[in-house]
């Protein structure tokens, strides 16, 4: 994208009816490392690729626990994600203190969507440059939402965001009909395969660059990383490199 006369502020519409500042924020999400979310009839999974800024730096945190029943996977600016995740935590704490109950997932999603939408409408602000996959389980069952900097929030059976996320979406669209009825271990396997498709051909998922989050009816939101993730990675099918084995040559008897 290049600078033009209509991107000086987020309140300025272009002649085509576009808000360029909001579109730039959406592009920031596409620059972040990939995150994948999917669910079955009982559980929601969030998976994310972690990046390191250098050999001496630790891997960035991509999964964040909001409450016992809510977690998020992020793609985009981690500083913006920290601010928004703290806001979501405050909303959850308020619900428990005032009403003595967990915050319904739909209300948490709408609260953050309203907060983001204000930044697309008021002068002197900028849209948040981060997108979320929000997974949780409440009284109405498991839910998976996508939050974007424009303030839009949509519910999905499976979704991916971030760099090269289209490859993961292709896998999810191909297999999503199996997700609702499959077991938790099989669902994790599908999630890892979708996340692996966002990698370059010579890269693989490892215990260092992968995070897994699980939440369910009797399963508080749990983030699995490091050595605890190794058994799940070991169950993955071999990567298809796209090369076919040559057919054996026929020899005359």
Summed up, what is this model?
It is found in: Cytoplasm; Nucleus. The chain has 253 residues and is α+β, with helices and mostly antiparallel strands. The chain has one domain (24-233): Aminohydrolase, N-terminal nucleophile (Ntn) domain (Glutamine Phosphoribosylpyrophosphate, subunit 1, domain 1, 4-Layer Sandwich).
- Kindly state the mean pLDDT as a whole number? 90
Termini Cα gap:
65 Å
Helix content: 25-40%
* SSE series: HEEEEHHEEEEHHEEH
Question: And the CATH topology?
Answer: Glutamine Phosphoribosylpyrophosphate, subunit 1, domain 1
CATH architecture call: 4-Layer Sandwich
Shape: globular
Spatial order of the strands in the main sheet? 8-1-2-9-10
- Which structural class matches the secondary elements? alpha+beta
Radius of gyration of CA atoms, rounded to a whole number: 20 Å
- Uncertain runs are 243-247
Number of helices: 6
Biggest sheet descriptor:
5 strands, antiparallel
Regarding quaternary structure, what we see is single chain
| Overall tally of structural domains | 1
Q: In CATH's first tier, which class applies?
A: Alpha Beta
Number of strands: 10
CATH superfamily: Aminohydrolase, N-terminal nucleophile (Ntn) domain
Beta percentage is 15-25%
